[in-house]
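Hello,

Our lab assistant flagged a job as stuck in the queue for most of the afternoon. It eventually completed. Since we weren't sure the result was trustworthy after the delay, we are filing this so someone can double-check. Below is the sequence as submitted and the structure that was eventually returned. Let us know if re-running is recommended.
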Amino acid sequence: MAPIPDHDPETGEIREGAGNLVEYSVTDISHALKRSIEERFGHVRVRGEISGFRGAHSSGHCYFSIKDEGAKLDAVIWRGSFQRLRSKLQEGLEVIVTGKLTSYPGKSSYQIIVEAVEPAGVGALMALLEERRKKLAAEGLFDQDRKRPLPYLPQVIGVITSPTGAVIRDILHRLRDRFPRHVIVWPVRVQGETAAAEVVTALRGFNAMAEKPDVLIVARGGGSLEDLWPFNDEAIVRAVAASSIPVISAIGHETDTTLIDHVADWRAPTPTAAAEKAVPVRADLVAELSSLEARRARAIARVLAERKLRVDAAARALPSPDDVMAIVRQRLDAIGQRLPAGLKSNLQRHAVALANQRGRLSLRRVQDRVVDLTRRITDLGERQKRAVAQSLTRRKDRFASESKLLQSLSYRSVLARGFAVIRGPDGAPLHQAAAVKPAMRLAIEFADGEVQAVAEGPKADAAGKAKGKGPGQGSLF
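-- returned structure --
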C-alpha cells in the first residue's frame, strides 16, 4: 500500500485541514493498523482476569477475554499452544498471559495471541483452591465417616504414578524391604494439562477390574503449587470418593496439601510413607508371632502345672476307695438283713389290701367278670377249633402229597411190575449172585408176599461147565 500523505510523521495522525485526501479501502486500513500494532508492541505480558472461557473450540483453539476494572482484551490460544499449557484455565482466574498483540481485521478489533499462561500469584490459586475445597466439603466428600479402613496385609497393591520417576522406585523398594506384595502400576502423567484426566481414568480402571487390588496409592513427588495443581482437580476428588477400593494419597512433601488428601482414606506425607502404611514389616510380624508362640507355650505349661498341683492336692484330700466302699458295704449288709422281714411285711400288707378289695367287690361285678371271661373263653375256643381244623387240613394235604411221593419212590412199585427182592439170612438185600452161598437160607419178597428158600450149588450147562464168566448160580428151589 502507498504511504498515507498529509499525516504527521511522528504521530501518524492525519493532519486536519489536509486537502486532496486519498481514499483507502477498509482492508487497507485494517492491515495498516495490524502492522502498526504488531510493530509497536510485539510480544507483551498482560495481567488480568479470565472472562468468557468456555474451553477449547472444536478446532482445538481457545477463545476468551482478559479483563480488569477498566477494559477487556480478546485473547486467542492456538491448539498447539493450548496443549502445552502447564496451568489449567478457568473462568475468573487471575493470570498473566504472554503473547503477541495483533488485530483481527474481520472484526476491526485488536487481540492477543497467547503463547503462555501463568497464575497471577499464589494468592489467586489459593483463593480458588479454598473456594473449591469449601464446595466439595459442603457435599460431604471429606467427612471422616466416609473413610474406609485400610487392609492390614493386602495381596495386591495398585499404584497410580509416573512410571519413570523416583516415586515408583521408592515405593517398590520400601514394599520389598517391609513385606513384598504383588504391585500393579498404572502409568500416568503427574503434571500438565492431561494429568488430572489420566489419574481419573486410572482410578476408574482399577475399580472396573474383575480382580481388584486391595488398596490404591496415588503418588507424586514434591513441586510448586502449580505443579501439584492437577491433584486439586474436582474430577479427581470425585473419582477417589466413588472408588470402592481404599485409597492412599501421597502427593508432594509433608507440607504440601492437595484436595485429594482430604478425600483419600489415608493421607501419607511422602510416597515412601504410603508404602509403609500399605503393608506391615514382615520381620516384625515374624518376631511377634514367635513371641506370641513362646508366650502361648509358657501359658499352657503354667496352666498345666497349676492344674497338676490342684489335682494332687485334691487327691490327697480324697479318702481311699476301701474307706469309701466300707460305708456302702455296711449299708448293703444292713439292708440285706432287713430284706426278709420287709418282704414278709410287704406281702402281708398286700394280702390285707387284697382281702379288703375282694370284700368290696359286689356279686354283680363278679358275675359281669365271669360272663366276660366266659365270652372270651368261648371266643378263644372257637378260634382254637378253627386253627386246629386249618392245621389238620394242611397236615392232611401234606401227608397225602408225601404219601404219593413215597409210594412213587418205594421199591414195592417195582415189585408190582413182576420183580422180587432177595434177602440174606440177616435180612439185607443181595445184589450179586456171588454173595449167595450153597445152603444159604434166603427170603424172597414178591409184590403179594414173601417165601423162604435154600440156595443150591451153581448149575452146570450141558458141557459140564458153569454159565457165564464167574461161578454159576444154582437153582434157588
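-- support follow-up --
The delay was a queue issue, not a problem with the job. The result is valid. The two ends are 183 Å apart (CA to CA). Residues 410-477 form one domain.
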